[in-house]
From TrEMBL:
Protein name: Zinc transporter 6, chloroplastic-like
Keyword annotations of the record: Ion transport, Membrane, Transmembrane, Transmembrane helix, Transport
Transmembrane annotation, as ranges: 28-49, 61-83, 103-120, 185-204, 210-230, 242-269, 281-302, 323-341
Membrane topology according to the record: Multi-pass membrane protein
Family the UniProt entry places it in: Belongs to the ZIP transporter (TC 2.A.5) family.
This protein's record includes keyword S-adenosyl-L-methionine: no
Origin species: Camelina sativa (False flax)
Annotated compartments: Membrane
Keyword Nucleotidyltransferase: no
Length: 342
């Protein structure tokens, strides 16, 4: 982030690094490299899930991948997106103006993002409970009186078993719908973040900043892709939807870079323009709020406290819980480490 008061040496260094032609060549290279690494990251868990599908370890493998993904998403929101949003709105070109100097807008918009994600969650859950689930209220198990049973107790047991099977199928469908919703809302939050990354790089004219960012963002997209791909793999989408969601993730950052280049050519705004910083700060805060909610509520809490494979008693469940926790820590640590470079 630029300083409002710069020394002569710093100003000379900045001037030496500011090269529009060299920056443009680096950004075109970044478009292709980041697209390829995004494809690699997001398709990895999906292909692994297809490989394990139908095998004894399938459910456990998907759960471990999803816990790794949760760590990546949590780290992305708290270590990458939120600090960058605060930094953008705290820049002296922004914080010296009214109303940005009077109120912590980054925190407010982050809270709005989290509450918005909660609202989407509640609305979708209510819809599934009333219209999409079919397993609540009057659609539950029916007990037949003894006197009305046509075939004695065998008939009642048959009715009871059929109702049980219907209820289990209904609950499985609700869980699948919930997982699909989580994947879709998660992708929205990640797309906000990816657009910000791309536009910021596209508007920059500093070749010294862009060069190391290409390598750092490539790894960043691999890990973020692993996070999203793990959730897509578990949601059980149709093949066309999987391809669409993976493609959307892969192209968002490259398209953001192109958009940033177009914005600079039309307006002359670079990544240090006050209006660009405000946009980066607000979008980053909103994205961070969505991702924090999704990581903690819909990924970590849902699996560790409500997944039958982790909550059922037994040595096997205990071992799997430890493995999932290790995967969560590895995911968050891997993404946090990247904050040293991007």
């Amino acid at each position: 982030m630029s300083s409002c008061v710069t020394g002569t040496e710093a100003a000379l260094r900045a001037a030496a690094c500011r090269d529009g032609d060299a920056a443009a060549h680096l950004k075109l290279l970044a478009v292709f490299v980041i697209f390829l690494t995004s494809v690699l990251g997001v398709w990895g868990p999906v292909l692994l899930a297809r490989y394990f599908h139908g095998k004894p370890l399938y459910d456990k493998a998907i759960l471990v991948i999803k816990c790794f993904a949760a760590g990546v998403i949590l780290s992305t929101s708290l270590v990458h997106v939120l600090p960058e949003a605060f930094e953008a709105l705290a820049d002296c070109q922004v914080s010296s103006r009214h109303p940005w100097r009077d109120f912590p807008f980054a925190g407010l918009v982050t809270m709005i993002g989290a509450i918005t994600a909660l609202l989407v969650d509640l609305t979708a859950s209510e819809h599934m409970g009333h219209g999409g689930g079919g397993g609540g209220g009057g659609g539950g198990m029916e007990y037949m009186p003894v006197g009305k049973a046509v075939g004695g107790i065998e008939m009642r047991e048959g009715k009871f078993g059929a109702d049980l099977e219907i209820q289990e199928n209904s609950e499985e469908e609700i869980v699948k719908m919930k997982q699909r919703l989580v994947s879709q809302v998660l992708e929205i939050g990640i797309i906000f973040h990816s657009v910000i990354i791309g536009v910021t790089m596209g508007m920059s004219q500093n070749k010294c900043t862009i060069r190391p960012l290409i390598a750092a963002l490539s790894f960043h997209q691999i890990f973020e892709g692993l996070g999203l791909g793990g959730c897509i793999a578990q949601a059980g989408f149709k093949a066309g939807t999987v391809v669409y969601m993976c493609l959307m993730f892969a192209v968002t950052t490259p398209l953001g870079i192109v958009l940033g280049m177009v914005i600079f050519s039309l307006t002359g705004y670079d990544d240090q323009n006050p209006n660009a910083l405000i946009m980066e700060g607000l979008l980053g805060s909103l994205s961070s709020g969505i991702l924090i909610y999704m990581a903690l509520v819909d990924l970590i809490a849902l699996d560790f406290f409500h997944n039958k494979m982790l909550t059922s008693p037994g040595e096997s469940s205990s071992r799997l819980k430890k493995l999932c926790f290790v995967a969560l820590v590895l995911g968050s640590a891997s993404m946090s480490l990247l904050a040293l470079w991007a």
